[in-house]
Amino acid sequence: MYRKRTKGLIKHWDFILLDILCMQAAFVASFWLFHGFHNPYRIQAFQYQAIVLFLSQLLITAFAKNYGGILRRKRFDELLAIFQYILGTVLLAILFMFLTHNSAIASRLQIGFTAVFFLLFDFIARHLNKLRVIRSSEGEKGKRSLVLFTSAKLVDEALEKLYITDSYRDFTVSQIVLLDGEAGEMPGRPAIPISTLSDRTLREIGHDWVDEAFILQSNDMVFPSSLMDDLMTMGITVSYTMAAVNNDKWPNTDVKKLGEYKVLTNAVRIAAGWELAAKRLMDIVGGVVGCILTGVIFLFVAPLIYAADPGPVIFTQERIGENGKRIRIHKFRSMYLDAEKRKAELMSENKVKDGMMFKLDDDPRIIGSEKKDRNGRPRGIGNFIRSTSLDEFPQFFDCLIGNMSLVGWRPCTLEEWEKYDLKHRIRASMKPGISGPWQVSGRSEITDFDEVVKLDREYIEKWNLLLDIKILLKTVVVVLKCRGAE
To answer: Which CATH superfamily groups domain 144-266?
Structure first.
């Protein structure tokens, strides 16, 4: 029977428990530093502070992915990871205390010393626990015995990746069987060519201490199904891989069922179900709040738009959404009604080459753009709502109904989509967003479309909830500084 390996946070339960204990130890140490050797948990203010730190720590643990590859980290990298961990925890705790305005709040300075003590305690605790885990994996006793079936040309590479990648491995290669080539030698482990692997030898392997077999194929190798049958008949657990799975160009792979087929799935970014659910929840909450703000803004902006250019106040347009799906987006109208007709006439002045996007300095289609201030800059109502990004607020409705997200790529027009090369369509592998990496990276200055796509690709590859929050915070700064679209 094969026991499926624990994944995620449960896999590192020992480190999580140590972090929790170190946090409370650091909290007590900082209390003793300021108030003497008393029990902080008997004082209401410090009870509250300890609970807030604990809850903040749980949130950071759940969302920050601080434990990925923890056993392979070097000391400086571990120190940096702990610093990021405690920084996020402390900032979250202080933010919560500030928002709740609780009168029983202990000294903020003590929280700072709690962070310093935690950095010291946790670095020592994690290092000692790593030594424990690695030492427990040393030696042959207690490890799974693995028989490696592979090509002669892949033996060295296979052993390097099996042994060097994880110094805390829980298996040992007890036998090597070559699926091609001649017999070779490895210290203490002779390599057997498949041509000499008789039923008797196979039975000897099966009767020896063997927990698992690993079949590693080369690109030109036919899958050894008969060998697989023999191993399964003996009840040996078999792991196998194919060249496509290990291609560094396609690093993200998942196994799932497609109808009645078991398939390998590759994607630019594979997200867990809870991550997508949390992003959608954030979109719903943001969409509700944004729709309320949009209603308030409508009362003031709508009359000004209609007075300057009578017609619909809300501009609706068909755009491209996730995976090329057609969606309709909504904006406060900032351009004259004939803007789309005039676009063709102005295409020669487009700042973005090849027409992949449309950017124009002093766009005459914007409502009121003919009015200039003393510096010659347009000062119409359309320019105002674009520079302050007020025109984007109706898109919170699109976010609420699921066509868009708070953070994503800028949805393109159908005309622009038809001009995309294959490399450009990676943008549409996620939902478009009200804000995104391009919008907070000086969108009015970036006119190279390939650079825009590069930003979107990096966002998709590195996406996580904290990155979304970071972009949203940057968006607030951009809006407050009136760095909207020109």
So the answer is: NAD(P)-binding Rossmann-like Domain (3.40.50.720)
